């Protein structure tokens, strides 16, 4: 059977016969020859969407009517860029989810993990063929995650979890390649939509937050949390990992069982368990945000991964809570409200005990000054200790 690249190039010809997506063949290294086309396709598509859709959509949703009359500022540009990043990821994850489900939903292994390893007919892992449409799903995902490494390095806003995201992308690429070549594509075809589903809600929530649509952000966040728990912390470890590490040994006969003892089997499962570790790590951050949301009565905070959070957003005060910030090696804060001072201390972001005691004493003393002019409190705080931690969605 010809490789995916040959099929793609052949389909571009008007005289070529229609492609049989149900045709089966063994996976080959030659199939990855289509990746360069996808590496050109994804950035080209993103540039077009940014130029003709995402930019206008971001300005309209974030700034409302009259957005075209607003002056360009660094703060507005950062918010627009973040919205466009989320919009792009939403488009990919939604398309990948629909593509994966359309291919795997009617397959026997979608609901019964036993068929990861047996069937149809007398096929037994690793002697199992792949349908052409399943190969296309794999190449689509592989192309996106290879592109995402370059995207993370040169395009996206740099965030605090840069190292974690890079490790995640590398592990995902290795998983895709190993599962494809070692004919573990059936469990892989279920793992892909399991992960993409929660990412869809994540990106919807982030776009809603950037657009100040709180109710949609809350709904998306709750769906994100529910899908994360159900798909990544329950289905993934107790169905998928159980099948790839235990069920395979119970099903594959003695003659073929030596195959699963090879380094490929251990590499595949090691990477899957590493993915589970990432899930747990991110769940801790999500849980903190969930607690924060409950404490704030449903208000969803900002992105915890943002590398340069806005101080005005972090220390948002009421009309009586005016803040003047100066950065000269350290932050000098002029606090005009005892309530704000107490909120900063209670948030746990001030680690210096002397500063904390002084701030508390100032805040408490002001409670007994009725209708007196508020005095300024100058406190020098190291830059890394001055920000309140505002928690938002974590990918």
TrEMBL record:
GO terms for biological process: ceramide biosynthetic process. SMART domains: TLC (SM00724). GO terms for molecular function: sphingosine N-acyltransferase activity. GO terms for cellular component: endoplasmic reticulum membrane. PROSITE patterns: TLC (PS50922). The keyword Transmembrane applies. Residues 81-295 form the TLC domain. Coiled coil: none annotated. The keyword Phosphoprotein does not apply. It is a multi-pass membrane protein. InterPro entries: Lag1/Lac1-like, TLC-dom. It is found in: Endoplasmic reticulum membrane. Keywords: Membrane, Transmembrane, Transmembrane helix. The chain crosses the membrane at residues 29-49, 137-156, 162-182, 215-240, 264-287. This is TLC domain-containing protein.
